[in-house]
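Hi support team,

I'm filing this because I wasn't sure whether my run with copper (II) ion finished correctly. The job status page said complete, but I'd like someone to confirm that the output block is well-formed before I use it downstream. Pasting the exact inputs I used:
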Amino acid sequence: MTLTRRHFLKSTAALYLAPTLAQASVNVLEAKVASVQLIDAEFGDYPETQVWGFDGTVPGPLLRFKQGDTLQQTLRNSLPDPTSIHWHGLRLPNAMDGVPGFTQQAVQTGETFDYAFPLKDAGTYWYHSHNHSTVQVARGLYGVIVVEEQTPPDVDHDIVVVLDDWRLDETAQITEDFGAMHDWTHAGRMGNYVHSHLTPSPASVEENARVRLRFVNVATDRIMTIALKGAVGKVVARDGMPLRAPEDLDTLVFGPAERADVIVDITSSEAQALQIVFVERDTGYLLHDIPLSGRRSDPRPPIQPLPANPMRYLTDLSGAREIPLIMSGGAMGRMESATWEGQEMSTRDLVQQGKVWAFNGVVGMPTAPLAELRQGELIRIPIVNETAFAHAMHLHGTHFQEVLPDGGFGPHKDTLLVQPRETREIAFVAETPGKWLFHCHMLSHQAAGMKTWFHVI
Ligand code: C2O
Ligand code: CU
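And here is everything the job wrote out:
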């Protein structure tokens, strides 16, 4: 029999599928110390950087599933420090949420922990250490999870773009000033090497090709503003969840942990490339460019919304319980005192303890939850930012929607960037029983006090 190209494709598909299925029982993510070439050659001849990575890579392995699959991953800890995995943005049972000392024990050096849960929602999610995260995430302990739709949109390339931010010394090593108080009281630990990592990273794209880009900001603290040049299209999802009405693509702003999926068509441009640009003040730095080569002539149909996830939308707030959250503290924050571990303390004494940010006058993780919620209860939280800094508020366990000034609701989100002196309101239905964190995802702010939790019963 002659092996036509068609046959060949069919048989490789079969070969490809078999090991993927068999993998389910042996998926181990090993957290370990490794060396990677972090700084691109164009910057000069830098040595490898010592990192902590899942399977020794940064980002960790890209985990791809189909909606409805069960994620099964064993974490093996080969680091000199206890760790865990938090599956950011995924709706899962509380015991799988990966918060040490809270939903599980930290996984000690040499030990393992088995995570398994069904993937209810399609979209772009990520996983990261939730132990000593100011250190562990800064060292590289994160990766991306893609949960494919049952019927994914028709695109020519599907590319994950991890945006990260490293603080490196002149030998390309991560500086170990993790708890620097000046960082913690201000905007957090800012790096000096902002970088994008593409998986896969195509050598070229055709003009008129349709590309899905899945952006994930894994930086510990940095807000990233990103522009795409040489493409037009739509934002189709935020924080993993499809937008009912895709938005025209403009500049994208990502607080730490925020994501967006965009679908674009490549246009011819002066640069003859698809460019990912990091925008700061009025300047742009090119993070990555993919040159154009060739041209597709088939006209593409208009970009459609992604299929909805099984997640309900809020329609009104009648009967909602209001739980305000007031943020205070930090540099220029005028906070005079706050409660830490049950004790009222002056800001001066709190700084000595590295505790400088408060929610409702309390710094650090309170023993009692912010509120006990009944399953199915509708909650609204006005978030009042009295501080001079932006905060990326993240809720574990379910997505919320922003309550908009006109009374409508924003898209499903798991992280909301709240600007200095701004008030924003979110609402959600308490979903899964258990203990769920609600914290700032600027990890320096979280470590310095911005952390609380809900108990869903
Ligand atoms: Cu992305 Cu509490 O975490
Ligand atoms: Cu913050």
